[in-house]
Amino acid sequence: MKLYSFWRSLAAFRVRIALKIKGLDFDVISKDLLMGDQFDQDYISLNPQGMVPSLVLNDNNILTQSMAILEYLDEVYPDPPLMPRDPLARARVRAICMIAVADTHPLIVPRVRKYISQELGLDEKELNSWILNWSGFGLVAIEEHLNRNNSGGMYCEGNTISLADLCVVPQVGSAKMYGLDLDPYPSVIRVFNNCMELSEFFEARPQAQPDFPDENA
Ligand SMILES: N[C@@H](CCC(=O)N[C@@H](CS)C(=O)NCC(=O)O)C(=O)O
């Protein structure tokens, strides 16, 4: 399989974790989102939205959208499962995924950052404040969900890894990178730390990627 990725991409991070948990071999092809590589014509023909991740399967089928990719991988490679069986637990997992994937992450992607700085004229400090505001907004909601539902479990849904963890960990990693104060989110941090002790999460982290820039090391 070939994964189009970028070290800093939260959506690609989710998929890297899933590929590792499922024990699948994949080559990473980096698209430098800060240089605009995602808009190369050959890449647009793979992913018309000009976003990472895209996953090219061994039979050359192309998958886009991280949640669709995660669900595909979980359906085709069910062991170990990344969704609980109980319908209520599944709904809880999906709710946390959506807080991260649908309601938080899209507000801080490069295209939005570029628009608000270049078109709306926000300076770097204002842009950073935007990023911290929306990152915090998402973490508040996830913290509440965890406190209500997981009763001190190791991961988002009890003591078993689920898609919720694959969505929360990159979100926290990004919040850390931007310097958000994480003290108000102890349950989120507990889950983050527990996940990062697992090699699949640790090896999928941005800092472990071949395209991670030396100056950030
Ligand atoms: N909903 C999409 C979001 C994909 C996405 O926005 N990816 C970002 C990187 S995390 C990207 O490629 N951004 C390119 C840009 O904003 O120009 C998914 O989950 O796959």
Q: Shape from CA axes?
A: globular
Give me the CATH fold name of the largest domain: Glutathione S-transferase Yfyf (Class Pi), Chain A, domain 2
**Count of alpha and pi helical runs:** 9
Distance between the termini: 28 Å
Return the average pLDDT rounded to an integer: 96
Give the class-level CATH name of the largest domain.
Mainly Alpha
H/E topology pattern: EHEHEEHHHHHHH
State the helicity in percent bands: 40-55%
The class by helix and strand makeup works out as alpha+beta
Tally of separate domains: 2
Indicate the radius of gyration in whole angstroms.
17 Å
Small ligands present: glutathione
What kind of assembly state do the chains in view correspond to? single chain
- Percent of residues in beta strands: 5-15%
Biggest sheet strand line-up: 2-1-3-4
Write the CATH architecture name of the largest domain.
Up-down Bundle
